[in-house]
Every structure is written in structure tokens, then in C-alpha cells.
Design goal:
Layout: E1 41-46, E2 52-57, E3 63-69, E4 72-75, E5 79-81, E6 85-95, E7 98-107, E8 112-117, E9 126-127, E10 137-144, E11 150-156, E12 161-165, E13 176-177, E14 186-194, E15 199-206, E16 211-216, E17 223-230, E18 244-249, E19 255-261, E20 266-271, E21 283-287, E22 290-298, E23 303-310, E24 315-319, E25 331-332, E26 336-337, H1 338-343, E27 349-352, E28 355-357, E29 363-364, E30 367-370, E31 376-378, E32 383-389, E33 402-407, E34 412-417, E35 420-421, E36 431-432, E37 437-440, E38 453-459, H2 489-494, E39 497-498, E40 509-513, E41 519-524, E42 530-534, E43 543-546, E44 556-563, E45 569-575, E46 580-584, E47 611-618, E48 624-630, E49 640-647, E50 650-651, E51 655-657, E52 662-670, E53 673-680, E54 691-695, E55 707-709, E56 719-722, E57 728-733, E58 740-746, E59 749-751, E60 759-761, E61 766-773, E62 780-786, E63 791-798, E64 807-816, E65 823-826
Length: 827
């Protein structure tokens, strides 16, 4: 049991839970988050049938449980267990010949009790032996060994630590003390099993913040005091100290240890190599007011789950995934994402928050989500229908559809726009239940590429959405320019939703400067729309570049830009349906023209592949090179990397580079050679998330051998640019700490300012980057996105010439706020 929250324990066996007695299932998230439901001590347990059990002790001492229905995150209502408690833990072990869920609690009076779930109900509490003397139990943690027997570790109010192991007959062994380190008392403990060695590991934090680890003896029945070791991640002394600690083992035999330190607010972690006791490099989720942590391994889905407590009391959780970052985004443990509540299915996302529009005048009065055309849309709150307008597909006047539902108790109207209303079951005056299907996602009132469901909360009784889109030229105090609705975050939170949890990430972006010195920025919005702008525009606003081309509603996936030998701008894109295309300005931009518009997009390039990331460069001969990853599996390998280049008015064939599992791409040209940088994906073993680069040869091909760039870090993306002096600059954000790092070439190799290995730009949470060099000033220009969608620009203070490289520090600017509910990408 941890000092602040109980262990997050996932069911490790074959617990099949039949139709359970007790809580009544509901097909929607909880209606409200009451004060006594705020996060406190908790344990999360996952069964092989797909159900997640959540056990919680609220700050008021109330013990509650709930579980999901089938494989979907629809939670039952809370079921309260009588009594007053301070701590809870859980595991699964063999009880009476069957695998059972076991729960342990510490009561407010300091008593330790157990209960077992029979598959239909919880047994009566069994009281464990007292620790002896005047001591009382304080916290509890549990794990299960290779023999399927449960272990309990518990601290006392005097700072002692004891453990007990379940016996063959179901009884518990006598309590055994874990010796203190000097005079330091024990403050927090956690335990887990190391696969392969079949040793139980104990991690305990002392009152001085120092962490010790222990392992069970060869007999598997006791903790071996001689195995005690002072814990510290490699190269990370901060994880040697903690107020809270969590340890768990995965299926490969690696042990994972997570630690929080209230003094710094940091949450750090590392893991051992498989089957060893050697800890690897420290990783961090930053100083974000973390005060507690718990973790456990999900055997069925092969995922490490982690929950962290904020000083505010909020509990967030995440788990490992196949995403290049290695982790899912953090989610709030008590609320559903608003997109899941709307669709009651995964795969939806929030594509625009509440605030201003990106490409039009007016105020965005709601939240936009999208899943797919035809996806069932469900009522987020109950109420009475006040208006239904069927509308029609497209952006023509009169096509906007509307469903308005008023909740008299909340005194709020929720308006849904752009859907195809379920008119067979809805009519004005109809009572709608929370979670009831009210329509189907569509594009009524918007272009097909912008299919979405707009959700708008309005105080009071209404029949339509607030006026929001201006036609242009309206006065500043016109209704469309005045935010009519309040910020809805607190309302949706009170209804059990998290409006930012499934916020779609910002798509790809690219930056290039033309020969007249204009900077052109291209950005794929969270909704998949490609927009662009350039310096010198009458208004520094975004313009829609196009949809997925030729009427495709798929939206864009990746974008790259380059200047060809004549100075025309080329924009290469991949769409979400896997097509690779490009289009060019009709002529080279100059001081008097911005390129005379855009040529029509080309036909799909190298059809038959599902193209992912794209990059482009123009060599000294004026030939455009394009690079792209193929996300479909070819000969058993996914994410292969290909390239082709112009060749006397045509193109060479697509040629593969290296093996598969490539992610972010970028290219540049130095001394007549094309340099291609690429990030390995998360499925490349020892090479996962490492950057490699290739150089072209004199015969116009890429070399088959690669050099590694930036070993020792897990990189999320990469971008390269060459200044006028020939210095190559490379920028890359890391998954390890979210920092945006850079380095550049010199005559002696790669370096950074002050002869450091790396320079840093901005704070953490960076996820993607693009760069260019200004054709006039020679300044290096960088565009980078954070995980909340904020888009930033960095420029060197000093430009470059043919003999002097760029440098002199950096100037930064927020280009476009994109996350945190601030909207702005609501096209």
C-alpha cells in the first residue's frame, strides 16, 4: 500500500466474473461527480473477461466499488461497502481451489481486513492479526507470487513494515518484520512479481525519502533481508528519493519502479533488464504536482498501467501502448472523455475546443468531435427535445441541422449540430435519456471534409445554437463576435466527462521560405484539414489549402514543403486514406506575386501503398526528392521507408531504404548531398525511437548504410535544415522528457552551443517539429508543436551567410494556441 493512494493492481489470473450481484449497470457515464467521489486511495483490477474493477476509499473514508460492462468502458454505478476506511488494495490469488479477486482494507480504526469475491458477491470481512503492541495498521499493498498465493505488505502508524503470505489452506502466515534502514521509519511500500525468476520484489520508501528494494528468498516464502539495495535509476539520482513508490513486473521479467516526490512534484520511473536487478535510465513525466503513484501489469493485454495523484487530489492514469511514445495519453480516472460519452465507442476525438475560429470571423461556441460519417451519436445529458432541424448535406445556407435538448434540473440546453437526427424516435417534446441514440454523425451545414458533431452547452432554455459565424465586416459587438456561452469545462466535468481527454493531436506541419523571403507555414489541424499562411498577408490568418484532394473526405495525415529549382513551392501530402500527392504554385513567388495560385493536385503517387509520413528536399541540380513511409505491411514488415526523385522530367521508381518500422522523416541538402533523417518506431527492439540518417551518393541514390544520430534517447520526431554556410541543424523532441533538443554540424562533428552535446528550445511536452532556413536573412526557423496542440515558432537571432553560420540565441513566439480547450482550430 502506498502512502497516499493504494496500489493500482490489475488482475493477473483467469478470474471470470459472471453476472454480478450488487451495482446496477448503466450504459452511460456517471451523472455527477459528487464531493465524496473525489479521488482518494484506490485500486484498479482488470479481469480476463475485460471488466475493470475500481475500488476506492474517498477522502471521507467511504469504500466504493464499480466495474465496467464487457470490454467497453461503461461503468456501473458505485456500490458502497459499509464502514470507514483509509486504505485499499487488491490482487488475485487461488482461494478454495479457484482464482479469486481478493481485497484488503485498513479501517479508520487501524484494523486490517480481507474479503474475497466469489464471482457473484463479496464474502464477509476476515480480520487479520494485529501488528502487536500499541501499533495500528496504516497502509496496505498486495501482490501474488508464482504459486498463486497472495502476499500482503502493511505499514503501521509507528513506521514499521510487516508482510504475510497466504498458506495452502487459505490462512495467513504470521507477520514478519522488514528491518528498518538505520533509524528511519517506513512510509510507503509496494510489491510485484518478477517473471522468470519468480521472485517477489518489495519497494519501500523511508521517511527520509530514500527507497530500498528487497526480493524474496529462494524458498519463495520469505523476504531475504540480504537482498536489500538502495534504489536509483541509472543516471537519475532524483528517483533515489520519493514520498511514494510503486513497483510491478511485466511478462518479460523486467521490473518497473515509479516514484513521486512532493517537494518537486516530479514523477520518475525506470525499469530493469529482463530477469536482472540492474536498473536502466531514468525517465520522467515532468514536475506536474505529482504526489502519489501506483502501477501494475495487465497480463491479458500485455500493458503496464500507472496511476498518479496530483496535489489537487485528481488521479490520472495511462498505460503502455504501441504508439511511438510508448504510452497512452493521461486520462482522468473518474470521468469519460466527452467523445466516448457522445459515441459510446472508442475512436472518436475532440477536434476543436471552445474559443475563436481559425479561418473565419466569429466565436466558436462549443466543442467539435468526430468519429466517422454515420457514427451513432448519443445524448450526453437527459432532457426534453426543444427543437429538431433535419438540414441537408453541405455548407449551403439552410443546410445546418440541429438537435436541442433542455434539462430542467440543470437549467441547461445542449445543442448538437451537423448530425443526421434520428427523427423516427425524436420529436419536439420527447424525453431523452442520457446515452440514448439521437442521431448519426454527418456534415449537415459544413463541407464533407469537415464532418463532425458540434456540442454546445447553453444556460437556460433554447432551441438553437448561439450565433457564432460572422459573414465578414460585422461590428466588434455584433452577436457573432461576442462569446454568448460560458466556458463549458466545469459543466462537462460535473457531468462526468473530460472535454480534453481525447483531444485530437495536431497533425503534421511544414515551414518553408520562398526566394523573396516570405515564410510559408502549412499545418494539418486536429480535424485533418490542411491550412496555410505566409508572411505579408493582409491578415496573418490561416487559409484552407484543401481537403484530402478530389473530394476525398479522409483528411490529411502528413505534409512537407520544398522549393524546386525554379523557385516554385511544392507541397507534398499524405491523406488518411493513404494517398500521396503533391501540388505546386503556378509560378515562383516573388516580391510582387505569391505564386499565382496553385496547380491542381497530382494523381496519387505510387498507388497501392498506404502512405504515412512524407518529407521532401531539392538537390543542387534542382531535382525534387520525396520520401514516404508505407504503413501497410509488405512481406511481413510494416512502415517501410521509400524514396524517389525527379529524373529528366519524370520520376525514378520508388526505392526502399533500410528495414521497416520508420516514423518521423526529414531531409535536407549539404554540399550537393541529400541527407535523410528518420526515426525508428517503438517495435524496433534496441533501436526503438532512435534516429538514423542516410546520405545520397554521386549516382543520385541514397546510400544503403546509415549513421546513428543522437543515441541514448527515445525520439518522437526529427527535422533538419541547412543554413547558408552549409551547417546542418537537426531538431528532435524526446519521449524521455518531452524536451525539444537540437545540435548542428561542425568540422569536428555534431555539437551544440558551448560545446554541449545538445541545446534545448523551450520547456517540455514537445511532440513534433519542422524547420527551414530563411532565403534572405539566413536565419534558422523552427516550428514545433506541444502535446496540447500549441504551435510555436523559434528563430535564430543571427542569420547565416556563405561563410558565417547562424546562431546568436533564439527568439520564440506562440503561433497558434491549439489545446487546453482554447479552440482556434475550429475550422
Amino acid at each position: 500500500m502506498l502512502q497516499r493512494i493504494a496500489s493500482l493492481l490489475l488482475l493477473l489470473g483467469a478470474l471470470l466474473v459472471p453476472a454480478l450481484a450488487g451495482p446496477t449497470p448503466v450504459t452511460a457515464p456517471i451523472v455527477t461527480v459528487a464531493d465524496d467521489d473525489l479521488p482518494g486511495a484506490h485500486a484498479l483490477v482488470n479481469s480476463p473477461s475485460g471488466r475493470e474493477w475500481l475500488m476506492r476509499v474517498t477522502p471521507a473514508g467511504v469504500l466504493k466499488t464499480r466495474y465496467t460492462i464487457d470490454d467497453d468502458p461503461f461503468w456501473t454505478d458505485w456500490s458502497t461497502i459499509a464502514g470507514s476506511y483509509t486504505s485499499v488494495a487488491g490482487t488475485t490469488a487461488t482461494v478454495d481451489g479457484a482464482r479469486r479477486l481478493v481485497m484488503a482494507v485498513v479501517t479508520a480504526g487501524g484494523t486490517l481486513k480481507y474479503a474475497t469475491n466469489t464471482g457473484t458477491e463479496w464474502t464477509a470481512w476476515t480480520t487479520a492479526a494485529a501488528p502487536g503492541g500499541a501499533q495500528k495498521w496504516a497502509t496496505v499493498a498486495m501482490t501474488t507470487d508464482a504459486a498463486s498465493r497472495a502476499w500482503t505488505f502493511a505499514t503501521t502508524d509507528t513506521g514499521n513494515l510487516f508482510y504475510s503470505r497466504q498458506q495452502v489452506d487459505g490462512s495467513w502466515s504470521a507477520w514478519t518484520s522488514v528491518a528498518r534502514v538505520g533509524t528511519t521509519t517506513w512510509a510507503a511500500a509496494s510489491a510485484g512479481l518478477q517473471a522468470g525468476t519468480n521472485r517477489v520484489w518489495l519497494a519501500a520508501a523511508g521517511s527520509d525519502g530514500k527507497i530500498s528494494t528487497f526480493r524474496s528468498a529462494a524458498n519463495g516464502a520469505t523476504i531475504d533481508a540480504t537482498t536489500r539495495a538502495a534504489f536509483q535509476c541509472s543516471g537519475g539520482p532524483s528517483t533515489g528519493f520519493a514520498d511514494d513508490v510503486a513497483i510491478s513486473g511485466d511478462a518479460s521479467g523486467r521490473m518497473w519502479l515509479f516514484a513521486t516526490r512532493a517537494a518537486t512534484g516530479a514523477l520518475n520511473y525506470c525499469q530493469t533488464s529482463a530477469g536482472t536487478t540492474t536498473w536502466g535510465t531514468e525517465k520522467s513525466w515532468g514536475a506536474a504536482d505529482w504526489s502519489g503513484v501506483s502501477a501494475a501489469w495487465d497480463v491479458d493485454d500485455a500493458q503496464m498501467w500507472v496511476a498518479g495523484t496530483k496535489t489537487s487530489g485528481e488521479v490520472l492514469y495511462r498505460h503502455t501502448s504501441a504508439d511511438p511514445s510508448g504510452w497512452t495519453a493521461f486520462a482522468t480516472i473518474d470521468r469519460l472523455s466527452i467523445s466516448y460519452g457522445l459515441y459510446l465507442a472508442p475512436g472518436g476525438s475532440v477536434t476543436a475546443g471552445f474559443a475563436a475560429y481559425l479561418t473565419r470571423e466569429g466565436k466558436h461556441e462549443g466543442i467539435d468531435t468526430r468519429r466517422y460519417v454515420g457514427a451513432p451519436v448519443h445524448a450526453l445529458v437527459s432532457g426534453t427535445v426543444t427543437n429538431i432541424i433535419t438540414g441537408c448535406r453541405g455548407a449551403e445556407v439552410g443546410c445546418l441541422s440541429t438537435i436541442a435538448i433542455y434539462n430542467a434540473t440543470l437549467e441547461k440546453t445542449v445543442v448538437y449540430l451537423h448530425t443526421n437526427p434520428a427523427t423516427t424516435s425524436l420529436a419536439v417534446g420527447t424525453t431523452v435519456a442520457r446515452g440514448q441514440t439521437i442521431g448519426y454523425e454527418d456534415y449537415r451545414g459544413v463541407e464533407q471534409v469537415n464532418y463532425q458533431t458540434h456540442i454546445e452547452m447553453r444556460p437556460g432554455w433554447h432551441t438553437v445554437a448561439a450565433a457564432s459565424v460572422c459573414s465578414g465586416g460585422e461590428a466588434p459587438d455584433a452577436p457573432c463576435n461576442v462569446q454568448a456561452n460560458p466556458i463549458p469545462s466545469s459543466f462537462w466535468t460535473s457531468q462526468g466527462y473530460d472535454p480534453d481527454q481525447d483531444r485530437a493531436p495536431l497533425g503534421g506541419h511544414a515551414v518553408v521560405t520562398d526566394r523573396s523571403g516570405r515564410e510559408w507555414d502549412f499545418v494539418i489541424t486536429p480535424g485533418g484539414t490542411l491550412v496555410y499562411r505566409y508572411t505579408g498577408m493582409t491578415d496573418w490568418n490561416w487559409t484552407v489549402f484543401g481537403d484530402g484532394y478530389n473530394g476525398s473526405s479522409a483528411g490529411f495525415r502528413s505534409v512537407a514543403a520544398t522549393l524546386d529549382g525554379s523557385g516554385r513551392i511544392w507541397v507534398l501530402t499524405t491523406s488518411n486514406d493513404g494517398e500521396l500527392r503533391y501540388r505546386r504554385t503556378a509560378q515562383a513567388p516573388s516580391s510582387t506575386t505569391t505564386g499565382a495560385g496553385w496547380d491542381d493536385p497530382t494523381a496519387p503517387q505510387s498507388a497501392g501503398y498506404n502512405w504515412g509520413d512524407v518529407a521532401a528536399s531539392t538537390d543542387d541540380a534542382g531535382r525534387v526528392w520525396m520520401f514516404a513511409t508505407a504503413t501497410n505491411t509488405i512481406d511481413g514488415t510494416a512502415d517501410r521507408l521509400f524514396y524517389k526523385r525527379q529524373n529528366n522530367g519524370s520520376w525514378t521508381d520508388m526505392t526502399q531504404v533500410g528495414a521497416g518500422d520508420w516514423r518521423g522523416l526529414s531531409s535536407t541538402v549539404k554540399d550537393g548531398q541529400v541527407w535523410l533523417f528518420a526515426v525508428k518506431g517503438s517495435d524496433s527492439g534496441a533501436y526503438s525511437n532512435r534516429i538514423f540518417y542516410y546520405k545520397s551518393t554521386s549516382d543520385g541514390l541514397l546510400s544503403t548504410s546509415a549513421s546513428e544520430f543522437g543515441a541514448g534517447s527515445r525520439w518522437a520526431d526529427v527535422s533538419a535544415a541547412t543554413d547558408l554556410s552549409g551547417r546542418v541543424w537537426v531538431f528532435a523532441p524526446t519521449f524521455t522528457d518531452g524536451l525539444l533538443r537540437y545540435r548542428y554540424t561542425t568540422t569536428s562533428g555534431w555539437t551544440a552551443p558551448g560545446s554541449a552535446d545538445w541545446g534545448e528550445l523551450g520547456n517540455g511536452d514537445w511532440v513534433s517539429v519542422s524547420s527551414t532556413v530563411h532565403q534572405g536573412s539566413g536565419k534558422v526557423e523552427v516550428v514545433a508543436a506541444k502535446d496540447d496542440g500549441d504551435l510555436w515558432s523559434f528563430k535564430t537571432n543571427d542569420g547565416s551567410t556563405a561563410t558565417v553560420p547562424a546562431g546568436g540565441g533564439w527568439t520564440s513566439e506562440l503561433i497558434e494556441p491549439g489545446g487546453g480547450g482554447r479552440g482556434s482550430y475550429g475550422i
